[in-house]
Design goal:
Blueprint lengths: L2 E4 L28 E4 L3 E6 L2 E6 L11 H18 L7 E5 L6 E5 L17 E2 L6 H11 E8 L4 H16 L3 E7 L7 H8 L4 E7 L9 E7 L4 E6 L5 H5 L5 E5 L5 H14 L4 E3 L2 H10 L5 H4 L14 H15 L4 E6 L5 H8 L6 E5 L2 H14 L5 E5 L2 E2 L5 E5 H4 L2 H4 L9 E5 L6 H10 L4 E6 L10 H4 L4 E5 L1 H6 L6 E7 L9 E2 L2 E2 L1 H8 L2 H14 L4 E4 L3 H13 L4 E4 L8 H10 L4 E4 L14 E4 L6 H9 L11 E7 L6 H7 L6 H12 L10 E4 L1 H10 L8 H13 L5 H6 L11 H8 L5 H9 L1 H9 L6 H11 L6 E3 H14 L1 H7 L6 H17 L4 E4 L2 E4 L9 H21 L10 H5 L18 E2 L1 H4 L9 H4 L3 E4 L4 E9 L12 E4 L2 E5 L9 H7 L6 E9 L1 E2 L2 E2 ...
Parallel strand pairs: 1-31, 8-9, 9-10, 15-21, 15-22, 16-19, 16-20, 17-19, 20-21, 23-30, 23-31, 26-28, 26-29, 27-28, 29-30, 37-40
Antiparallel strand pairs: 2-3, 3-4, 4-6, 5-6, 7-13, 8-11, 10-14, 11-12, 12-13, 17-18, 24-25, 32-34, 33-34, 35-43, 36-37, 38-39, 39-44, 40-43, 41-42, 43-44
Helix pairs in contact: 2-3, 3-4, 4-7, 9-10, 10-11, 23-39, 30-31, 30-34, 31-32, 31-33
């Protein structure tokens, strides 16, 4: 079981942990494994790449030491320096008095610029074995502007070794020309496809060696400035040749003598124009694979490697695949899967779509597309993969990897037939991109649409669940992945951030980058970060920074303190990405400071520390960054996470995400209390430690909304975090009801929150009656909303749409969702019958209003398009929400009281769906006078002002409970409270007896009766009668006492997290 620890609970190593304040001494509390030497006078402790030499006596200042103690320390400096010095350059010595224990910090000599990722040596001969060719190729590729490569054989294993470095070359605008051969069939088709999948300035050729053998092995590098380099020798492109084989290769660097490089370049150019050379295309690779005879080494003597193992789903992926097959069997055409970072979301998509002829993968970052191509290539080695982004567009590929920014443009989207793809994958995205993704989804008609996300947070990330038909197919989050042994456990340290964030401009859901960089790139904060790293971190660290300048600053600062550090980002001062990761993996670097570059696609399992040096606006990004270190490895027992907590509400996002909390500050406050009381059970092997000051910061950020203002508080917080307001559907997903705002409907609420633009407000005012009707119309079925959705998708709201198109668009919606399909009562592919149903029901009814008109072969609005530029988006938001509520309510149906007709239940009903229910939504608010009609009753003040209302006609008992009664109590004090999120303890009035009618109804002795619980915190809200929340039809769980009777009720749905603090719910 994991645990939470306040900072005072941190345990020490083998020494007694002395110190003041909240922190144990970094010297006395050092782990036993970090103690280099310890005697009666001094202690020598390893700190990162350096050493701390300290007196055994715990004092804070040098002047507090005796003369003898000072002399002892001074005499030990020389021998300790000798442990760190290199090439006769002495280690650096610094007196440190910033903590509780004075010590001398000794750091290794500063590395020469560029030497961290440089050549192993500069001798001409590279002899293989321990002097592997790969280590020499990396820095040359990193330095080159162009690379020409001629090798006789390409093996998949060798391409995988060098591929990340070639990708870096192309990503920074470099050029690659490759010439390989098909001699003896040794070159592997899979290797050719991996190279061909690269994007950028790439020219690939093959020497068809049917008549003449082809054996050159040469690398030619052209540097961005002057000169270049040449490597010629015995190595083909195989893993053994690059990393471990005894291979001789001769290196020549241009400035000494340019003639060899010039001769090699000329020979390469002459090869390219030979008649045997042809362009390497997907068609050529397919033909080569068909005619290739896999060589046998005993016959040809050619190097042959065992084929790579085909990827197979691990246990979580297998479960998700089973769930996806089941959801398609039920008739769903779309679904969402939640898999934690590190559990293989992209591979899951590749496995599930393996039988689809054509696949579209859509994401918002190029790095995600690149990693997706790697996964799909592994699962589908023969398929043609293509990009549709930036300068490269291959719309005819079997699997198209498209950036949403490019594909969503109308000029590109209309290039594709709506039925072009059998399977579409949508990767998680930010709230602001939702409308763009919606445009893509509305255009295509795939056999299945798969949404992928790492976070189960329904109120963030652009409502991906809504785009997937509200169909959550499978979920395995971070905690589950750790508990199942698929991800490494973490030790999380929340530490206080000294930055004053209130002084940094906040715009559109993010800090101003320049001002933020100015605030965080300081010596004091960097010193604090390295102290935290030395105290809590491991040996291989990724630090996530605010900006390029911040990353460069941190790398320089860390190097000055003796750490082997580089910065990786998209700027000119960046270290090469692939080489930096390889050096970190090999232990040649201590830390890599990154800016977004490593949010996705880092495969270094041995990373043991993640240093969060930046505020994170999105839970998706925070989980991605955390996930960089969650790969399991024999080299680590756990991942250390050092996370800064600052005085801005955006830092609550980290806390909320880590603890899997829902919307609202009440859940945050309750979680902090439970953390303090050590009541939260974390995954096995995990620990969460917050510095006491960090806990105080979190507490200060939490707001306490008044009863009834939870929605407004959530709304403001969402707007602050995202830079834009939530949609009605996002509010619904967060556990609130947009239809019950206490304002003039949802759009009235948005208007009162001052979030309607002038154009939107004018449209809302001009078409308020129409929009109110969309928001409140009764929905016995989904017909009307389907018609409106079809018109909006067809750009006919306002406007005109042909009935044939309208029917087809409704059919498309029904094909994706079996609930909607069942609603229509006809097969959506039976066009004549579907048209008849639509004509008879929604179209006829809508045409009877002032807003729509049914003509011969058309259906249209009666208002002009030019007058309503904002109408379609506002209507679309309401339609999406109404369909969402309808689908949610179809999943939870409660029995209607006996004797109540559907018409009676629908009268004055909540604008949710009218299934066989009272039309009530659990945990939504209802004024007292609006409760009676839901049970077919007439409200009157006399009977409905009581705490118990008995409706004999429908055999229902209504409990109206005010929890804080104040002076209301009559006949004794009533103790009403929650014993748990699903158990309510209620004290009946003293006049209620067990053997009376009310007592028999309560216990269930009177057959056929139902008991419905409504409650509120207090009698008044803003000086007026407070509404009640519906807790549902409750089940009798037991009672005790008499006059008064104390009854325990089981409620059907747990109290939402955002309401638990308000109602004092015990876990």
């Amino acid at each position: 079981m994991g645990e939470f620890r306040g900072e005072e609970d941190v345990t020490a190593g083998s020494n007694v942990p002395e110190g003041s304040g909240d922190h144990p001494c970094v010297v006395c509390a050092a782990a036993a494994s970090d103690i280099v030497e310890c005697d009666a006078q001094v202690i020598l402790v390893r700190q990162g790449a350096g050493l701390a030499l300290a007196p055994r006596r715990h004092v804070a200042r040098w002047r507090e030491l005796s003369a003898a103690e000072q002399a002892t320390l001074a005499a030990r400096i020389g021998p300790v320096q000798a442990l760190l010095e290199t090439a006769n350059v002495a280690a650096r010595v610094t007196l440190v008095e910033t903590g509780d224990h004075v010590h001398l910090r000794l750091d290794p000599p500063l590395a020469a610029p560029g030497s961290l990722l440089g050549m192993p040596h500069d001798r001409p001969l590279i002899s293989g074995g321990e002097d592997a060719l790969h280590a020499h190729l990396r820095p040359l590729i990193d330095q080159a502007h162009a690379v020409d490569l001629s090798v006789s054989f390409l093996m998949t294993s060798g391409v995988r070794v060098i591929l990340p470095h070639l990708r870096d070359l192309l990503d920074r605008g470099g050029q690659l020309r490759l010439l390989t051969g098909d001699y003896l069939g040794v070159t592997e088709p899979a290797a050719l496809r991996l190279i061909a999948d690269l994007e950028g300035e790439l020219r690939l050729h093959v020497f068809q060696a049917a008549q003449i053998p082809f054996h050159p092995k040469a690398w030619m590098f052209t540097f961005a400035g002057d000169g270049g380099a040449l490597i010629v020798g015995s190595s083909n492109l195989s893993r053994s040749a690059l990393t471990e084989g005894i291979e001789w290769n001769l290196r020549h660097v241009d400035p000494v003598d340019p003639a060899p490089l010039l001769a090699a370049r000329a020979a390469f150019e002459s090869l390219l124009i030979r008649p045997e050379v042809t362009e390497l295309t997907p068609a050529w690779i397919d033909a080569y694979e068909d005619r290739r005879i896999v060589p046998q080494p005993t016959i040809t003597g050619a190097p042959v490697e065992a084929p790579e193992t085909e990827p197979t789903p691990h246990e979580v992926q297998a479960e998700a695949l089973t769930a996806l097959r089941a959801t398609r069997a039920k008739g769903y055409g779309a679904g969402l899967v939640v898999l934690a970072t590190g559990l293989g979301k992209t591979f899951l998509a590749a496995f599930d779509s393996a039988t689809a002829a054509r696949v579209l993968f859509v994401a918002h970052r190029e790095e995600i597309l690149t990693q997706a191509m790697v996964a799909f290539r592994a699962v589908r080695p023969r398929d043609r993969l293509g990009r549709y982004s930036g300068e490269e567009k291959d719309p005819e590929a079997d699997i198209v990897f498209a950036s949403v920014q490019t594909l969503a443009r109308n000029s590109h989207l209309t290039r594709f037939d709506p039925r072009a793809f059998d399977y579409i994958v949508i990767d998680e995205f930010h709230h602001a991109a939702a409308a763009t993704y919606r445009r893509i989804i509305d255009h295509f008609q795939p056999g299945f649409l798969l949404g992928l996300t790492a976070t189960p947070d329904r109120s963030d990330g652009g409502d991906l669940l809504g785009l997937c038909e509200e169909n959550l197919v499978y979920e395995c989050d971070l905690w589950s992945g750790i508990d199942r042994g698929l991800l490494a456990p973490f030790h999380y340290f929340g530490v206080p951030d000294p930055v004053e964030y209130s002084q940094i401009p906040w715009r559109s859901g993010r800090f101003d980058e320049a001002a933020l960089t100015e605030a965080v790139a300081t010596q004091a904060r960097a010193e604090n970060a390295l102290e935290q790293l030395a105290k809590r971190g491991g040996k291989k660290t990724i630090g996530f920074c605010v900006s390029r300048r911040h990353a460069d600053f941190m790398a320089d600062f860390a190097q000055a303190r003796g750490l082997r550090a580089v910065a990786v980002h998209s700027g000119d001062t960046s270290a090469p990405r692939a080489s930096a990761l390889k050096a970190l993996e090999d232990g040649d670097l201590d830390i890599v400071f990154a800016v977004d570059m490593f949010n996705e696609g880092v495969d270094v399992p041995s990373i043991d520390t993640v240093l969060m040096l930046r505020p994170t606006e999105s839970p998706v990004i925070w989980l991605q960054q955390l996930g960089r270190g969650l790969r399991r490895s024999a080299e680590k027992t756990h991942l250390a996470v050092i996370d800064y907590i600052g005085n801005h509400r955006i830092f609550l996002t980290k806390f909320r995400t880590l603890l899997k909390l829902g919307a609202g500050d009440g859940a945050l406050r309750l979680a902090l209390e439970r953390l303090n009381d050590k009541l939260i059970q974390f995954p096995v092997g995990c620990e969460v430690t917050y510095d006491l000051q960090a806990l105080d910061i979190l507490r200060s950020l939490i707001r306490q909304p008044r009863d009834g203002e939870e929605l407004a508080a959530f709304y403001r917080d969402f707007r602050e975090r995202h830079g834009t307001r939530p949609t009605a559907s996002e509010v619904q997903h967060a556990g609130f009801n947009p239809g019950r705002t206490g304002h003039e409907g949802w759009l009235g609420f948005v208007a009162d929150m001052r979030d309607l633009s002038d154009t939107q407000r004018a449209t809302w005012t001009a078409h308020r009656t129409l929009l109110d009707e969309i928001e409140t119309t009764r929905m016995t079925r989904s017909y009307k909303m389907l018609v409106l959705r079809a018109m909006i998708e067809g750009n006919a709201f306002p406007g005109q749409i042909a009935l044939t198109e309208l029917v087809e668009r409704v059919a498309r919606l029904a094909r994706r969702n079996p609930q909607i399909k069942a609603d229509l009562s006809v097969d959506p592919d039976d066009t004549p019958r579907l048209r008849a149903v639509l004509m008879q029901q929604p179209l006829k009814i809508l045409a009877e209003t002032d807003w729509f008109q049914l003509g011969p072969g058309t259906f249209q609005t009666t208002f002009a398009e030019a007058q309503n530029p904002a109408l379609a988006p506002l209507a679309s938001e309401l339609v999406d929400w109404r369909l969402l509520r309808y689908l949610q309510a179809r999943d939870v149906v409660y029995e209607m009281p006996e004797g109540t007709s559907l018409a009676e239940a629908a009268e004055e009903a909540d604008p949710g769906p009218i299934a066989p229910t009272q039309g009530l939504t659990i945990w939504q608010e209802y004024p007292r006078d609006k409760i009676a009609p839901h049970f077919g009753a007439v409200f009157n003040t006399g009977s409905w002002n009581a705490g118990i209302v008995v409706l004999k006609g429908v055999r229902a008992m209504i409990l109206l409970v005010t929890m804080d009664k104040g002076s209301m109590s009559l006949g004794g004090h009533y103790a009403d409270q929650f014993a748990s999120p699903t158990r309510f303890v209620w004290q009946a009035q003293t006049s209620t007896r067990r053997n009376g009618l009310r007592g028999r109804i309560i216990s269930g002795a009177e057959a056929g009766w139902t008991v419905h619980l409504f409650l509120r915190k207090s009698k008044l809200r803003d000086g007026r009668a407070a509404p009640f929340r519906y807790a549902g039809p409750v089940e009798f769980a037991g009672w005790e006492g008499e006059a008064p009777i104390t009854v325990q009720w089981d409620i059907p749905e747990p109290v939402p997290e955002q309401l638990r603090e308000l109602y004092g719910v015990n876990e």
